């Protein structure tokens, strides 16, 4: 038997989440690697799954947890053997396949990557999908020619998980980072991560003109809606926007003007189905670029039981940085 958070659908369609005991027979049959999960996380999508605020769960019952790290127990996949240390992000885990907010999981070996050299399970989950997504965004900016000397880079939703890591990564790479947040009290925190300036999200979150004064060489946006539209409208000629989230909304009330008059590039960044080579490159960068003291500023550790109470808080924007879950606690 092992502990797990289990989601079930009530008769009225609402979600019931509880910490319970499961056994191996309840793990999904389609997995070919059984793992002991040491650490997981609570991401925005996990918050949606646990609270039922959005229909992200596609199969019931479900163990949430889109991230996991730990050690292989048993494997019929030739790429993995007992004792190997693994890292998992995405692939629909926690939505259509039982996830990692549990002491044990059964996963497809093709979804896993080896733990990067020098990284622990806790460190990997302190970064998690949020930090991995932030690195994919930073890579997208660099690959599309955005250099530190080109000017300021904007990070929206900066006090959240993706935003916090994005600020730290971009600042360490030499960019002048402006952090947009609804929590102006977090200005000192964001500057400690490397932000050169902090702005109120209200400056971007209302409807704006389709073409505005040029400011940003690049943007990492995890918010969407009017925030993304305004950010695009303010990007300098030839700049790039990496879009990876929808905290404000899925809509994009924008104009084609920035794209055809300024050559702005809007790059969609997907972390869920990204190919293995892209994942390995991102995690290799994270292992070498994220400093332990930076992670400690960003991270709060909670227990598996605590995850139920923290899920609605992450949706309400009450979480700063990252939540790492010690599934053994």
| Main sheet specs | 7 strands, mixed
Helix content: 25-40%
Number of DSSP helices?
Answer: 10
Spatial gap, N to C terminus: 15 Å
CATH architecture of the largest domain: Alpha-Beta Complex
Averaged pLDDT: 96
Rg calc: 20 Å
Q: Determine and state the CATH class of the largest domain.
A: Alpha Beta
How many domains make up the 3D coordinates?
Answer: 2
3D architecture notes:
With 329 residues, the chain is of the alpha/beta class. The protein folds into 2 domains: 2-115 and 295-326, Quinone Oxidoreductase, Chain A, domain 1 (Alpha-Beta Complex); 129-268, NAD(P)-binding Rossmann-like Domain (Rossmann fold). 29% of the residues lie in helices and 26% in strands. The chain contains 10 helices and 15 strands. The strands form 3 sheets. Strands 3, 4, 5, 6, 7, 14 and 15 form a 7-stranded mixed β-sheet that branches. A hairpin with a 5-residue loop joins β1 and β2 (15-22). The two termini are 15 Å apart.
């Amino acid at each position: 038997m092992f502990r797990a958070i289990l989601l079930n659908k009530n008769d009225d369609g609402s979600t019931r989440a509880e910490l319970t005991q499961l056994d191996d027979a309840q793990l999904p049959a389609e997995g070919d690697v059984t793992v002991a999960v040491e650490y997981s996380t609570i991401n925005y999508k996990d918050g949606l799954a646990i609270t039922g605020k959005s229909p992200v769960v596609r199969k019931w019952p479900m163990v949430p947890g889109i991230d996991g790290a730990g050690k292989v127990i048993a494997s019929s996949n030739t790429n993995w053997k007992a004792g190997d240390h693994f890292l998992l992000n995405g692939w629909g885990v926690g939505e259509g396949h039982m996830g990692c907010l549990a002491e044990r999981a059964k996963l497809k070996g093709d979804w896993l990557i080896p733990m990067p050299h020098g990284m622990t399970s806790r460190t990997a989950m302190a970064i998690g999908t949020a930090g991995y997504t932030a690195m994919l965004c930073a890579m997208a900016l660099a690959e599309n020619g955005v250099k530190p000397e080109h000017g300021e880079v904007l990070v929206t939703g900066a006090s959240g998980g993706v935003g916090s890591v994005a600020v730290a990564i971009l600042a360490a790479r030499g960019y002048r980072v402006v952090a947009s947040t609804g929590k102006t009290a977090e200005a000192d925190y964001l500057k400690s991560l490397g932000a050169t300036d902090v702005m109120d999200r209200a400056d971007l979150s209302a409807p704006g003109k389709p073409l505005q004064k040029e400011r940003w060489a690049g943007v990492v946006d995890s918010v969407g809606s009017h925030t993304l539209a305004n950010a695009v409208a303010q990007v300098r000629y030839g700049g790039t926007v990496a879009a990876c989230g929808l905290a404000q909304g899925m809509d994009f009330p924008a104009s084609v003007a920035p794209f055809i008059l300024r050559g702005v590039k809007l790059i969609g960044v997907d972390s869920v189905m990204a190919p293995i080579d892209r994942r390995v490159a991102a995690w290799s960068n994270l292992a070498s670029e994220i400093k332990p003291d930076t992670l400690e500023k960003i991270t709060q550790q909670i227990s598996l039981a605590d995850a139920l109470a923290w899920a609605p808080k992450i949706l309400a924007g009450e979480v700063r940085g990252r939540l790492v879950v010690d599934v053994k606690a």
